[in-house]
Amino acid sequence: MDSARYRANDGAHAAAGRSGTPAGPAYHRVPRPVPLYGAEFAADPRAVYARLRRYGQVAPVEIAPGVGAHLVVGYRAALDLLHDTETWSKDPRAWQATVPPDCPVLPLLGWRPNPMYNDGEAHRRYRRVVTDTLGMIGPHALRARTRSAADALIRRFAAAGTADLVADYARDLPLMLFNQLFGVPEEDHDRLVAPLAALLEASGPRAAGRAGDAVTRYVGELVNRKVREPGDDLTSWFLAHPARLTTEEVVHHVALALGAGIEPVTNLISNALSRMLGDDRYYSTLAGGALTAWDAVHDVLREEPPIANLGAHFPRRAVEFHGVRITPGELVLISYGAANTTPDGLPPGPRSDGGAHLAWSAGPHACPARGPALLIATTAIEQLTGQLCDLALAVPRDRLAWRPGPFHTALAHLPVRFTPVRDTPASASAPRGGLRPAPPHRL
Ligand code: HEM
């Protein structure tokens, strides 16, 4: 990042640069990148985004001690970058060669043979495997499985009258579901929870490295099992896809889908529940009022997106991007969190259209799982609030703790109380049959 140069005569940046940045000549070295790791960012990302915006559309940040990046914080600049595949590549290998092998963000940002880190034809081939197979899951089957997983979890704590909705519900629900979808045996679920969470926290070289290895090792075993005994699950469908992925490529696709799928869905569910329970505008929702789970989910996507900063890109050649000189091999990230809350030219705050947002990213690498993710999150929230109608936060929302990490907006805990319920319904919606939609004649 030393070689990065920001335009000093950018008015916004001059204000931010008071801490030792001389005004003009045209470009100067970045004085002090703003850390996105640690407690300060986790506690109040908005305050950090406000500081970053003073640099203009792109700001200098550190995503781990000593690991710099340019962060795109403007909505327009984010869209410019995400749609410009001629200038920007997703292949991190040139950047990767510049960071130490134990760099704590490498397990998340290092190159792999899957859609997230590849361009052009390789990207299209990989992405098709994901979109084709996700498209084979019937929404009714997915909803039924979500309800069933939700009921099973609610039964575990309903009689207690208290729960931590992160640990007891939002974290386990997508895990149960995705493990089913990918054919992971139930007794192995715990082997995935901690390493998947550690990847996004990027908390230290050893922890992140171990987490990456644990996920790859586990998924490797799973894929080998499915090679021998294919089933009606996404892992087997990846293996059978006409793109003819190698076994190693399938391992990286399954690991990506589990990593990209489970944690953000957890965050979407818990962030939305915390809004519904902690904000008067939603209070009436639980008693049958106006704002629905769908509204809460969309407000979270705009204001506390589960993936707050990611979209790693690298310039194919030296560029000047919104006043910043960026050279090949430098890491550029998109702040979905910052960009969402300042759609350029639009007034801040809620709007009747639900508000433009980039929580799913945009362009060719936008999330391919929007539909399933929304269906899972809204169903999970409806199922919970339908059964425990007087859920209330056990601590005020502004005292809830958020997990550290540059990449996500993730609650650490969501303590709630409610009237104990002894006889929650055994899932009337327990799924029957496979994942695919039933053929029309069976309806
Ligand atoms: C609330 C839930 C989710 C959110 C907010 C979300 C958001 C995103 C975002 C922002 C990206 C762009 C990645 C980047 O910035 O580099 C992305 C990519 C991706 N997501 Fe999701 N996602 C969610 C759920 C899922 C699920 C459930 C799956 C899979 C089953 C999934 C699979 C993927 C894949 C494979 C990519 C890479 C696409 C590509 O590079 O072409 N996501 N997602």
Automatic annotation (TrEMBL):
Residues 1-27, 422-443 are annotated as: Disordered. It comes from the Bacteria. This is Cytochrome P450. Residues 1-10 have a biased composition (Basic and acidic residues). Belongs to the cytochrome P450 family.
